[in-house]
Design a protein that fits this description.
With 88 residues, the protein is mostly helical. It has one domain (5-85). The protein is built from three helices and two strands, in the order ββααα. The radius of gyration is 21 Å and the shape is elongated. The two termini are 20 Å apart.
Amino acid sequence: MQKGISVFHPETGEDLGKSKKCAYDAVINTAISRIFLNVTIFLPPIALVCIEKAHMMPKNWYLKTLLEAILISSELYLAVPVGIAMFP
C-alpha cells in the first residue's frame, strides 16, 4: 500500500500511474469480502445451535443427519456464492 497500485485506462489498457487510494480501496474491499464470506460460513452451525436451544432438533438420528445435510448444502449453494458476490 505504501507504493500504490498500478492504474490502467479501461479502454486502451495504458498505464496511468500508481495510486495509493486504489491500493487502500483494494485492501479494504478484500478484507470486507472475506469477513462476509466467513459470516455466511457460520450460518448453518448457528442455525443448528438455535434449533437445539428451541428443543426442535429431531430425536431420530436419520432426521438429524438429514437436517444437518440440508443446512450444509444450503450453505454451499446459497451462502458461499452470496458472500463471494458481495464484492466482485
